[in-house]
Amino acid sequence: MVLDTGGPALSALLCEPAAAPRALIVAVHGGGMRAGYFHGQARPDLSLLRLGARLGYSVLAVDRPGYGRSAAALPGGLPVAEQTPLLRAALAGFARRHPVGAGVLLLAHSFGGKLALSLAAQAEGGDRLLGVDVSGCGRRYAPDAEDDVRHGRPGGRRRHWGPLRLYPPGTFRDGAGMMTPMPAQEMADLASWPRLFAAIAPRVRVPVRVTFAEHELWWRHEDSELAALAAAFTACPRVLLERQEGAGHNISLGWAARAYHLRALAFLEECLPPGAAAHGGAGS
Questions:
Q1: Is residue 284 part of a domain?
Q2: Is the residue at 281 inside a domain?
Q3: What is the pLDDT of residues 102-114, one digit of tens each?
Q4: Contact call for residues 232 and 202 (beta carbons, < 8 A)
Q5: Which of 153, 192, 226, 243 has its CA 20 to 30 Å from the CA of residue 3?
Q6: Is residue 277 in a domain?
């Protein structure tokens, strides 16, 4: 489907439950991917879109500004700060035309986690934001991570995927259409993230869950770093830090995708207001 932003239109994938949705999950992909990251074709049972709809949620996976339909209008992409108002406008327009149940969970990966946290930092009551679930996005990069990607070093591929045994056969063949070069302005924006994180984390006022894969090589995630990351969310009512066993950076395309998605949906259940779980959705 197409989302209106008042500027460049964004493309998206939408999967809705048979009954009225209990809530809306907005899935935000990482750098060099597209919305199909959350709808992996190698194994249908690993798709977040299918799983969410079966459990009574609408799932909207958005092509971020500079990807999909908006790539022609934004060939260089945009930095996080400029993507934020476009996504916010797109979601407001979607909510005017589609039911969102009890509210919205932002579920984001990698560079998309930066956008989700930036959006959460600016959220107001009318946005009906329930929480933020982020994977593959931390506070500080692992040593040499930026340079590996910026200069196209072989280590960049290893950081993105980890051991290939973590992914079902056919992942790279069937997923070719969801992979695309990272826009230049996103690449240039990499270095600014630690500073931007420090500015936006204290402004997030909803529960946050952050997951690092067992084979995460992009980010620092030793215990002391995780403690500092959690401490940065000074206004959050709840911060959860988790590790996903048997996963590489691209968790939602691997064998561990279903386990990760189920944990994310359990987190959403805990974010729902009292009584919301009793209304609408499959099997209610």
A1: no
A2: no
A3: 999 999 999 999 9
A4: yes
A5: 192
A6: no
